[in-house]
Structure formats: structure tokens, C-alpha cells
UniProtKB/TrEMBL annotation:
Domain Cytochrome c-552/4: 91-164
InterPro entries: Cyt_c-552/4, Multihaem_cyt_sf
Top-level taxonomic group: Bacteria
Residue ranges of coiled coil: none
Protein name per UniProt: Cytochrome c-552/4 domain-containing protein
Organism, scientific name: Isosphaera pallida (strain ATCC 43644 / DSM 9630 / IS1B)
Signal sequence region: none
């Protein structure tokens, strides 16, 4: 089965990472052979002597950056007519990937509105390092002229943003005698764990780059990173042979584990005792507060443990995305991680979260994640996961949730949107995995998979003109009898 694009079917308020899509007003992939939107990228070769120390560009050259155009030359990775990816990686990326327009979005009218609502002291987003850190480079200096900024960063998230500063390996990495020497190679981005980890600084955040509640309130999209969903939707610019042994289910689980670890690392930084704003509201489920208050049910469905749970009025839901159940019906695999998260969740959802206690719980959880990742590194093909059994379990979960006749009643609180979106992504990934591994799915399960994905999208859709879900009746089953007139 060929599954549809995932995040494109879910409301874009859940877009993960930097706002390259939303703030730019959308992007359209271009055909190979057309002209890229942007062509100016600075080439700054070092000559052995440091630039003047008062030159802002010296920050970049001393860090080893040379500019993306050095990669995008016709004889290197910039072949404009290449039918195969080898030789045309830069061209394909520049034309088809929204990351290539990350810097451009800072000049959009929506970005300007967000920026001025968030910060009234600076004139432009490119004067803020916390904007440039994800829309250009982490080391991007803020005091360059607009022309220099465009020259250096017009290519958005360029080659060196992910592959690392190229000065030391730019020339040697193309020579056969150096191809296996780690010193003369770009930063490795395969296997999938390394690729996912390269995304985390911007798509989850860290101590120096984060999207907090103030920025979200100003209009910036909240950060929801799902490695498997993104990787499925966005165009590749690397050789297909690098993915020939890819196991979609394993990649999804590893992606969620490293994202959870990054989210916990960010929480650790936010829990610093010198932080005047605590707790940071973006740690919690946005829809705990941002929801229609009319007709709220007495209970909310907890998808992580499949039980109804009563929350006190005003109690916020922590970790509804990154710390929610990693993969239902695989609890034995993630038991140690889930156990450490319980104590952390209790502390974060208390009336007065204690930063010292939270830092201790975070250290325990990150240790459990590290141990689990070591175990998974020893199983590169994900043989411990049975996608067919997991599909059946997830389908049963979806059927139960979307059946209005079930005992939980005919309404689900809006704060369950995150977990329902996770269920959707789980089902899509499991279907991909079964296809990639040639697993045989029962005929009734295969038919239900597509229909339940469609129904989940229907339920996850936001009302027109809103960027949050409503509290609404569950969509009726297709075979449900018509009600009385």
C-alpha cells in the first residue's frame, strides 16, 4: 500500500521545527532543470591568515565555514541536469526542500508581524541570534550588513548547517585516497539516528535555541518534531543506496527516543534555578488551555495508559507530545523509560513544580533512554519489532476511539489531539514498515488501515479559521445506522 503524505494531512499548526513552511506562506517543489529561487551564496576561502578580528564575518571563517556555493559547483554537487542524485544533491535540495528557504521566511510579512509582537527592541529578525540560529547557522553573527547576511545565508539551512563546517574537508573529501578517512569527511548523517540528531537543535530546541510560550503567543508555530513523519514527506537529496537497509518502524522509534532526550535536555536548561520564568508553559499541551470551554466532559481519555483519568481544574498536561507513549503495545521495550517519566510527569503537573526534583528526574530518564538506544544500536534492522502485530493492536485502539458507541462516551477533550496525532503517525509508519519488510497484513486490517487514517484526519482537522481543535463529537462510523429524523 502507498500511504499518503502524513503531516500534509494534519493541520499545519502542528508543523515541527523552524517555521520555514508556515512563515514562508508555503513552498512548491520545482522540477529538475528549472531555476532555483536563490543563487547567491558567499564563497569565503581562508588563506592561512585570520581576517580582521573586528570583521563580523571572521566569526564564520574562523569556525571553518566556506559557504554553500563551494558545494554547489557544477562539477561537484550542483549538476543542474542530473537525472540521478549523485552529482546533483545541492541542486535537488535547493529546488525541492523547504529548509532551503528558511532565511527567506524572515523577510515575509507574517514573520515581521510575529517578530514585532514578540520583540519591540530590534528592527529585523536577522538582528537576533536566536532567529538566525535556526533560520541560518548557530554561529551566525547578528551585526553583518543586510547584504552580507543575504550573501552568506540566502540559501537558508545550507549544506554546512547539517554536514558541518567544510574548510577542513572540502577539498580532501573528493579525493579517493581520503574517502575512508574520518578527518576528511563531512559530518555523518547515516544511519537514521545521526540524521535525526542533526535536526534536534532547531526542531526541538536547546538552551540557546528554543521556541518558548512568548514566541508561540506572538504567532510562531509550536514545535512538534516527528522524525519518521518528516522524513516520509520531504524530498531526499542523497543516494538511495544509503536507505536500502532502512526499517521505517525502527527509524521512527529511534527518532522519538532522541527527540525525547533532546526535549528533556531542554527541560533541564529551563529548570535552571536562575530562570525567572518557571514553569515554561510551552512544556505543556497547548490545548489544555486553548480549547472551546463549552460542553467539556468530566473525563479526558488518557491514551498513554488507556484509562479514563480525572484531572483537577487547571491542571496542565505535560509531555503530551514527546513524553507520551512511544509505541502502544510495546510497553516491555520501553518500560524503563516510561517508569522514569511517571515521576517526572507527576512533578511537572503539580501545583508548584520543583526545579531541583525535576532535574533529578530528567537525569534518570535520560540515562534510561541512553541505555535503550544502546540496545537498539545492537539491532540495526529492528528485528525485535513485529509490525503486523503492532498494526493489529493500533487498529484496535483506533477502532475503539472512533466508535461513538464505546464506553468512553461520544466526546474526547481537545487536549487529546496530540496523542491522536501520534496514533495517526504510528499507524502510517507501521503500514510503511509492513510494506518495506514485505509483511503480510490481514485483508480486513489492510482495508481498515486506510479508512481509519482518513477518519483520524477528519477528527484532527481544525475548524475553519481556528488553529486549535474543538471539543466535538467523534465522527460517526461509516456503517453506523442513520439516526431518527
Amino acid at each position: 500500500m502507498i500511504l499518503p503524505k502524513r503531516w500534509s494531512r494534519i493541520p499545519r499548526v502542528a508543523f515541527l521545527g523552524t517555521a520555514v513552511w508556515l512563515l514562508g506562506g508555503g513552498w512548491e517543489p520545482q522540477e529538475i532543470g528549472s531555476t532555483p529561487r536563490w543563487t547567491t551564496t558567499r564563497v569565503s576561502h581562508t588563506t592561512g591568515t585570520d581576517p580582521a578580528l573586528d570583521d563580523p564575518e571572521a566569526i564564520l571563517t574562523r569556525a571553518g565555514y566556506v559557504g554553500d556555493f563551494s558545494c554547489g559547483r557544477r562539477g561537484c554537487h550542483g549538476d543542474v541536469v542530473a537525472l540521478e542524485i549523485n552529482g546533483g544533491e545541492w541542486t535537488r535540495y535547493a529546488r525541492n526542500d523547504p529548509h532551503a528557504h528558511a532565511y527567506d521566511t524572515l523577510d515575509s510579512s507574517r514573520s515581521q508581524r510575529i517578530f514585532h509582537a514578540w520583540n519591540h527592541t530590534a528592527n529585523r529578525p536577522y538582528q537576533r541570534g536566536d532567529c538566525l540560529g535556526c533560520h541560518a547557522l548557530p554561529e551566525a553573527p547578528v551585526d553583518l550588513s543586510p547584504e552580507a547576511h543575504r550573501s552568506w545565508f540566502g540559501g537558508g539551512i545550507g549544506c554546512e548547517s547539517c554536514h558541518g563546517p567544510a574548510r577542513n574537508w572540502l577539498v580532501p573529501h573528493a579525493r579517493p585516497q581520503h574517502k575512508d578517512h574520518e578527518r576528511f569527511k563531512p559530518r555523518p548523517l547515516h544511519p537514521a539516528r545521526l540524521q535525526a540528531e542533526s535536526c534536534l537543535g532547531c526542531h526541538v530546541g536547546d538552551a540557546t535555541r528554543q521556541v518558548d510560550h512568548d514566541l508561540i503567543a506572538a504567532g510562531h508555530p509550536r514545535l512538534h518534531f516527528d522524525f519518521a513523519g518528516d522524513r516520509h514527506d520531504w524530498p531526499t537529496h542523497w543516494r538511495p543506496t544509503l536507505d536500502q537497509d532502512r526499517r521505517p518502524l525502527r527509524d521512527a522509534v529511534v527518532g522519538r527516543l532522541v527527540a525525547l532526550d533532546a526535549a528533556l535536555n531542554l527541560l533541564m536548561a529551563r529548570a535552571d534555578s536562575t530562570n525567572p520564568r518557571w514553569p515554561e508553559l510551552s512544556e505543556y499541551n497547548c490545548f489544555s488551555c486553548h480549547t472551546n470551554l463549552a460542553g467539556l466532559p468530566a473525563f479526558t481519555l488518557s491514551l498513554s495508559d488507556r484509562t479514563k483519568s480525572r484531572r483537577r481544574p487547571g491542571q496542565l498536561d505535560w509531555g503530551s507530545w514527546y513524553a507520551s507513549s512511544l509505541l502502544w503495545d510495546a510497553e516491555t521495550t520501553f518500560l524503563d523509560v516510561e517508569e522514569t517519566l511517571k515521576a517526572l510527569r507527576e512533578q511537572m503537573e503539580s501545583d508548584d513544580p520543583n526545579p531541583d526534583a525535576i532535574r533529578g528526574h530528567v537525569r534518570e530518564a535520560r540515562s534510561a533512554i541512553a541505555n535503550l538506544l544502546k540496545t537498539m544500536d545492537a539491532d540495526p534492522f529492528g528485528t525485535s519489532f513485529d509490525s503486523v502485530a503492532l498494526i493489529r493492536d493500533h487498529l484496535n485502539q483506533a477502532r475503539r476511539l472512533l466508535d461513538p458507541g464505546q464506553a468512553q462516551g461520544d466526546r474526547i477533550r481537545a487536549r487529546d489531539w496530540d496523542r491522536l496525532a501520534r496514533l495517526y503517525l504510528n499507524l502510517a509508519t507501521l503500514g510503511d514498515d509492513a510494506r518495506a519488510t514485505s509483511r503480510v497484513i490481514a485483508v480486513e486490517d489492510a482495508a481498515d488501515l486506510e479508512s481509519l487514517l482518513d477518519r483520524l484526519v477528519e477528527f484532527l482537522a481544525f475548524p475553519q479559521g481556528y488553529d486549535s481543535p474543538r471539543v466535538s463529537p467523534l465522527p460517526p462510523r461509516a456503517d453506523a445506522p442513520a439516526g431518527p429524523n
